[in-house]
């Protein structure tokens, strides 16, 4: 699989986790692709930490407005029914448990559902932003991530980088498989991409993993 196929495979599978009416927060990068693959009968409301519910697609070139940007500073458009508010209200929504799903990337995730996703060794980072609030305040946390970083495992026994939050990850979706983080059980592979074998998944994963008895082909 090339880079584009990997990203599309992950985004398509993540989209199947979203239900009509969900309030969803998307991390930067790969997670922003997910709305492109929603089923026709599923509409979600996208929330942005800087103070908005109801983000639409990026505007056409030449139609950008400085009044409409996402938390990363990118230009967006509002959808009918969108609402804007201050940052304090936005984080009140997040911390109050009113965001149904957060979809984030990961540098590292481990057997306990701990996540490290904000600092890259050797590079300057401004901070973790709202990620820690989203991880703790959101009802369901999904990681949309490539299984390895150029062959180096990202799913570890224990995270080595500074943590964003402990034990908050519910689901890990990679190009290889779907992994549920189950309390008391660990990492359980519930779906396997037909392009990969169990042995390949094990070789690409440092953490201990269990294959579910009712293991299914990875849905798209």
TrEMBL record:
GO terms for molecular function: CoA-transferase activity. It comes from the Bacteria. Keywords: Transferase. SUPFAM superfamilies: NagB/RpiA/CoA transferase-like. InterPro entries: 3-oxoacid_CoA-transf_B, CoA_trans_fam_I, NagB/RpiA_transferase-like. SMART domains: CoA_trans. Transmembrane segments: none annotated. Its EC number is 2.8.3.-. Belongs to the 3-oxoacid CoA-transferase subunit B family. PANTHER family: KETOACID-COENZYME A TRANSFERASE (PTHR13707), SUCCINYL-COA:3-KETOACID COENZYME A TRANSFERASE SUBUNIT B-RELATED (PTHR13707:SF57). This is 3-oxoacid CoA-transferase, B subunit. It comes from Porphyromonas endodontalis (strain ATCC 35406 / DSM 24491 / JCM 8526 / CCUG 16442 / BCRC 14492 / NCTC 13058 / HG 370) (Bacteroides endodontalis).
């Amino acid at each position: 699989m090339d880079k584009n196929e990997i990203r599309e495979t992950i985004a398509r599978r993540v989209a199947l986790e979203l239900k009509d009416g969900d309030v969803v927060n998307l991390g930067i990068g790969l997670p922003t692709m997910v709305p492109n693959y929603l089923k026709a009968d599923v509409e979600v409301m996208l929330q942005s930490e800087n103070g908005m519910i109801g983000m639409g697609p990026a505007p056409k070139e030449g139609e950008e407005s400085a009044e409409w940007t996402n938390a990363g500073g990118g230009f967006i458009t509002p959808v009918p029914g969108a609402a804007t508010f201050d940052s304090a209200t936005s984080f009140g929504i997040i911390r109050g448990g009113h965001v149904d799903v957060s979809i984030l990337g990961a540098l590292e995730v481990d057997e306990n559902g701990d996540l490290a996703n904000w600092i890259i060794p050797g590079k300057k980072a401004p901070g973790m932003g709202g990620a820690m609030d989203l991880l703790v305040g959101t009802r369901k946390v999904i990681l949309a991530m490539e299984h390895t970083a150029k062959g180096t495992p990202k799913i570890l026994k224990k995270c080595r980088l500074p943590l964003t939050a402990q034990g908050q990850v519910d689901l890990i979706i990679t190009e290889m498989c779907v992994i549920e983080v189950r309390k008391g059980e660990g990492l359980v592979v519930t779906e396997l991409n037909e392009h990969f074998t169990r042995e390949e998944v094990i070789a690409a994963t440092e953490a201990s993993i269990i294959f579910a008895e009712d293991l299914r082909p990875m849905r798209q």
